[in-house]
Write a structure and sequence with these properties.
This protein is an alpha+beta fold. The protein is built from 10 helices and 15 strands. β9 and β10 form a beta hairpin.
Length: 453
């Protein structure tokens, strides 16, 4: 069993702890049940044989020595074809974070929707008709009816939408811009949806392509999931995804090693989220039960021969080879209570993720995070494939790598946008209890200008 880490707050009730406590004085939680965080993953070669899912970090090969400071990237390959590429210095190991935070209510999945029981004097909801539009308004073209630069109602298609998002003619609430988002950038694509139970979309993504100094292409995908119990989680995820994407896309053309660029991008995302806590909007919305804006993050950088992932929290990245006879793999390890239980050998995955504390995250971006510990890992796949970068709103419905491979369409490299829609649809068909976001990045990177067929 791992040694008990030094905690400042109880992982169960989040009450402050005294140094040396074995049990929480507030709820009696056994603090020895919280293991240390798994170590970061070094570069490994993906040759069709991958480490067992959930394997301790110590079973991976040792991290290669860092090259001299200022070494160029890409650098001439070593004689050994399996040796890791040269790059910038790796970030120092950080101590395990001491706190936990619930990214959702700890009382289990949402209850099923109530069955509608019509009253004798009330029609069925489907029988409600929209208010008839004013013929003087509907007779006019749609754009003038909404005013210059305004929006036209999606329901009556005649009324003007006010600043609060409601039609001035029929009163219909308009869909938010972030309720469903899609983007295609060259060979990759991303889709984000509010889901079926949340009132807003607290996920965000950013995708883009660039070129390394030698002219070879690089693809970048960042996905963030706002922490629902925090203030302004939607703003946090958006700020983090933008900051991280901009940092990576700016660093790669300058010659930064992709793994160092990903690490620095997560640091930039953290600063962007931290700055939200200082804005007046946060103070106005702050409630006694809420925390500073916070989110999780996961990202991928794909080049012609290298795959980099970086993350903080429980958003994930998966590897699915084009040849489905080869094994898929999960590339990230969650910063969560359940993952730590599995890593410590205290529970198997089924037991850990069935526990009500399973989704208590132990790492996040935000001003109240105990430690910022960006994880990065580098892989050298020996065959074409697709990197699936997603929030838990998707992987809750395809948790194992084999499940993710089964629901990912076979033509994902040629039709990334369609395939991302299929994955989001899979989560919605499964219940859509959370926001759903996924980005698909083909490996190896495709030259700029090449898109889906």
């Amino acid at each position: 069993m791992s040694q008990m880490p030094q905690l400042s707050a109880c992982p169960s009730c989040e009450e402050p702890l005294e140094s040396g406590d074995r049990f929480c004085g507030a709820c009696g939680y056994d603090l020895s049940a919280v293991p240390e965080r798994p170590q970061d993953n070094p570069t490994i070669t993906m040759n069709g044989s991958v480490p067992a899912q959930g394997a301790p970090a110590g079973e991976y090969p040792e991290r290669p020595p860092a090259p001299p400071s200022g070494a160029p990237w890409p650098a001439p390959g070593p004689a050994d074809p399996q040796a890791p590429p040269a790059g910038g210095p790796m970030p120092p190991e950080a101590p395990p974070a001491a706190g936990v935070r619930f990214d959702r209510r700890p009382d289990g999945p949402a209850a099923p929707p109530e069955t509608y029981q019509p009253q004798p004097d009330q029609p069925h909801p489907d029988e409600y008709l929209l208010q008839a539009p004013d013929p003087r308004v509907s007779a006019q073209p749609a754009a003038p009816a909404a005013g210059v630069g305004g929006k036209v109602c999606v329901a009556c298609r005649a009324g003007r939408v006010d600043d609060d998002g409601y039609c001035e003619n029929c009163g219909h609430a308009q869909p938010r811009e972030r309720d469903h988002m899609e983007q295609e950038s060259g060979p990759m694509a991303a889709v984000s949806d509010r889901g079926l139970r949340h009132h807003r979309n607290e996920d965000a993504f950013a995708i883009g392509t660039t070129a390394l100094p030698d002219g070879t292409p690089a693809s970048v995908a960042i996905v963030c999931d706002g922490v629902s119990s925090a203030t302004r989680p939607d703003d946090a995820s958006q700020a983090a995804s933008r900051a991280a994407s901009e940092a990576v896309l700016a660093a790669l053309p300058r010659g930064a090693h992709p793994q160092q660029a990903m690490h620095d991008a997560i640091v930039a995302a953290s600063r962007a989220v931290n700055s939200l806590a200082e804005e007046p909007a946060t103070a106005r919305e702050q409630a006694p039960h809420q925390n500073a804006p916070a989110c999780t993050i996961v990202g991928a950088v794909v080049t012609s021969g290298l795959l980099i992932v970086g993350w903080v929290g429980d958003s994930r990245a998966y590897w699915v080879p084009v040849d489905r006879s080869a094994p898929p793999a999960r590339l990230t390890e969650d910063d969560s209570w359940a993952a730590q239980m599995v890593a410590a050998g205290l529970m198997n995955e089924a037991e850990a993720y069935a526990d009500e504390r399973a989704h208590a995250i132990t790492g996040w971006l935000g001003a109240d995070a105990y430690e910022l510990e960006p994880h990065t890992a580098a892989f050298k796949p020996d065959r074409p494939g697709v990197v699936v970068v997603c929030t838990d709103g998707l992987w809750n419905y395809a948790e194992a790598a084999e499940e993710m491979a089964r629901v990912l369409p076979l033509d994902a490299t040629a039709q990334p946008l369609h395939s991302a829609r299929v994955l989001v649809g899979h989560a919605l068909d499964g219940g859509g209890h959370d926001n759903v976001t996924v980005a698909l990045v083909p490996f190896p990177a495709v030259p700029q200008g090449a898109g889906s067929a």
